[in-house]
Write a structure and sequence with these properties.
614 residues, alpha/beta, five-stranded mixed sheet, 20 helices, 28 strands
């Protein structure tokens, strides 16, 4: 098992020990027809080539005046540039800060606000992006005093500056991973080389890594599952990876399965929504000649896992060689580098049916009888990693002194070498995240026979008449109504925006309709609202106070596509939610205005501020 002391050493060792394998990047045009030759437009980098190219990128960053410990923000839409610049920065001892690019992710002003927050919080001295995005970032530089340069990656690519040697230690900060912001403003998780290497060892042990493994991923590289799971782990273990552009999967989900078949992929992970999207949208004729029998690890994590989703996926694609035993539900979080627990390799989906009343009202796990139609079915995320701990505690146990034991619902808390050093330059939030020697995850769950089951987020539970209701269960019931976009429903408790009901929390469901006409037509909208109320009442015995229909794309989401429950609640309480429109594409007029403001900011900085915009 490889054990390099730092990621920089891992790059150099991979170049020597595995010079003929590396990374392959599928283009935006997609995966070639099954059985044909490899598409010449697929960029391919052996680990030797990655070592050489990343050295050029690292040398270019050093030539900008960046030194060990400085932060560089990366907003790079193409996978090749991102991988080479990220690795180059790490080899130079410069701390990369990945930020998602503005690609159909909602209102552009909101994107700029988030980018300003991350750049300012990280103290980045430079930001590398492409020429097109750079034109829009003048106001970001103007608002961030430490940001000296906004650099076009095109000039970094052409650089021939040599990489100057830098002494790196396992305890050095490797990079900052800002949280997705689904429950609060993004926080900078500080990860050292030690953290990363410890988690990668656990991750690769959990999937039973083999020499002939091939990773296939469409996951964004600016978030932990895509970056650590499919760039850093394969690099350290010297196995090849194939990368698809994330938007290619979203536009054509069949491209994911075609790539697995074409490259004989053995390991691929995705969130629950991706398995649902693939099962719903992929037509049999799109998979002609596809063979998924090589896929031995089909990981699922990053968001609540629904057993029905994975079972439907396995059934739909078994005819193409997919084996249900490959399913590997998992649990993880950025604060523990990537992964916290994996289910049993080769064991497929393991579920537990529990009595709903006992779970919701008492926080106690009681196994349901086979004929209990109201039972709650939960997915096992497996057991803890070696050298790590997972325990369940009451929320008010500030020192983590008394674990609740098995079959009791409480906050999941963890410890081990994968757990972050803290939030970047934020002592208060770091202290708030600790409970004694353990890290608070903010997630509710329980242990049963040593296996972890997730119930929801502690701050998101809706309490009504002394009983706890998990929003994910309301969302599941609502999403089953025809006309509702699956995966685009948010349930939450909120204050009455009119202020007339002050003595209790209202229970609200906001959802996106599949067709905008279903929201614009009052009769169609009312029919959907009525159906959702009935579904939640029937499934959970809960009466909703309000149901808010929205057009596709209107619900706020994070950079990784997670729904923002806290933001949705805020919009509801201020009366703004009903007026939200789909935000998949920024308004053209707004873009022109922002471009003009950006260029004016660059001009002022160049003339008055003395800062660069290379």
């Amino acid at each position: 098992m490889p054990s390099p002391p730092t990621l920089a050493h891992a790059v150099e060792e991979a170049a020597k020990c595995a010079p003929t394998i590396g990374f392959r990047f599928v283009p935006e045009t997609g995966v070639p027809a099954q059985g044909g030759p490899h598409d010449a437009s697929e960029a391919s980098f052996s680990y030797t080539a990655i070592e050489r190219a990343s050295a050029r990128y690292g040398g270019a960053l050093q030539a900008l005046g960046l030194k060990k410990g400085d932060r560089v923000a990366l907003i790079l839409p193409t996978n090749e540039d991102f991988v080479l610049c990220f690795i180059g920065a790490i080899r130079a001892g410069i701390v990369p800060v990945p930020i998602y690019p503005p690609l159909g992710l909602g209102e552009f002003q909101g994107y700029l606000d988030n980018t300003r927050h991350i750049v300012h919080k990280s103290g980045a001295r430079a930001l590398v992006t492409d020429a097109k995005i750079k034109r829009m970032l003048g106001t970001v530089q103007a608002a961030c005093p430490n940001l000296e340069q906004v650099v076009a990656v095109e000039s970094v690519r052409e650089s021939r500056e040599p990489l100057r040697g830098t002494i790196l230690l396992p305890s050095d900060v490797a990079f900052l991973q800002f949280t997705s912001g689904s429950t609060s403003r993004p926080k900078g998780v500080t990860l050292t080389h030690e953290n990363l290497l410890a988690n990668v060892r656990c991750f690769m042990s959990g999937i039973g890594a083999k020499e002939d493994d091939v990773g296939v991923s469409w996951l964004p590289l600016y978030h932990d599952m895509g970056l650590i799971g499919f760039v850093l782990a394969p690099l350290i273990y010297r196995v090849p990876s194939v990368f698809l552009p994330p938007l290619l999967f979203l536009k054509r989900p069949a491209s994911w399965l075609r790539a697995i078949s074409r490259h004989k992929g053995t390991v691929s992970f995705a969130p629950n929504f991706a398995y649902a999207l693939a099962q719903k949208r992929i037509k049999p004729h799109e998979l002609e000649g596809v063979d998924l029998s090589s896929w031995r690890v089909a990981g699922c994590g990053a968001e609540p896992i629904r057993p029905e989703t994975l079972e439907a996926f396995a059934a739909a694609f078994s005819k193409f060689g997919f084996q249900a035993s490959a399913l590997l539900p998992s649990y993880g979080m950025a604060e523990s580098t990537l992964a916290v627990a994996f289910s049993d390799l080769g064991g497929g989906l393991r579920t537990l049916s529990v009595v709903s009343d006992a779970l919701w009202s008492e926080g106690v796990v009681k196994i349901a009888s086979d004929d209990d139609t109201s039972a709650v079915r939960l997915v096992s995320c497996g057991k803890r990693f070696e050298s790590h701990t997972i325990d369940i505690f009451s929320d008010d146990d500030a020192l983590s002194a008394s674990p609740l034991g098995e079959d009791r619902v409480g906050e999941i808390r963890i410890s081990g070498p994968s757990v972050m050093r803290g939030y970047w330059e934020d002592v208060d939030k770091t202290q708030q995240a600790r409970a004694g020697e353990l890290l608070r995850t903010g997630d509710l769950g329980f242990l049963h026979e040593g296996r972890l089951y997730i119930c929801g987020r502690s701050k998101e539970v809706v309490i009504l008449n002394g009983r706890n209701y998990y929003p994910q269960d309301m969302e599941w019931e609502a999403a089953r109504v025809p006309g509702v976009r699956k995966g685009n429903v948010i349930a939450f408790g909120a204050r009455d925006p009119r202020g007339t009901e002050r003595d209790r929390e209202r229970v609200v469901v906001a959802f996106e309709a599949q067709d905008p006409a279903m929201v614009m037509d009052p009769a169609l909208a009312q029919a959907l609202i009525t159906a959702i109320r009935a579904a939640v009442q029937s499934g959970m015995g809960l009466t909703l106070d309000d149901v808010v229909p929205l057009t596709p794309g209107a619900l706020p989401k994070t950079s990784s596509g997670k729904l923002q429950r806290a933001k949705t609640r805020e919009l509801y309480e201020t009366g703004e939610l009903h007026d939200r429109r789909g935000g998949k594409e920024p308004n053209r007029v707004d873009l022109v205005k922002e471009a003009a403001k950006s260029q004016l900011s660059y001009f002022k900085l160049a003339v008055l501020g003395g800062r660069k915009k290379s």
